Amino acid sequence: MGYLLLFFLGGPVVLAIGNLVLGPIFNKKVPLRIHFRSFIVATAIYLICAGLFYYFILSHYFHF
């Protein structure tokens, strides 16, 4: 169960660190709202793909 939670939360945490912490530090010309929008779009795409991956492939291995 812990691995499944890590699967769905690990990606957005990495995206948040990259877009909201490291992005503004290394690229000061881009406004923070652009970094935040990039984080939201990337997180949505990740969660949709992770959900489909879980539904079609991993659901056969995890029976709750």
Question: Would you write up a description of this structure?
Answer:
This protein has helices at residues 2-26, 32-56. It has two helices and no strands. It has one domain (8-60). Helix 1 runs antiparallel to helix 2 (32-56). It is an all-alpha fold and 64 residues long.
Present the secondary structure layout:
Layout: H1 2-26, H2 32-56
What is the N-to-C order of secondary-structure elements (H for helix, E for strand)? Answer: HH
- Biggest β-sheet description: none
Rounded Rg: 15 Å
Oligomer: single chain
- Helical proportion? over 70%
Query: Number of DSSP strands?
Result: 0
Spans of at least 5 consecutive residues whose pLDDT stays below 50 are none
The domain tally reads 1
Features:
mainly alpha; 64 residues; elongated
Quick synopsis:
With about 60 residues, this protein is mainly alpha-helical.
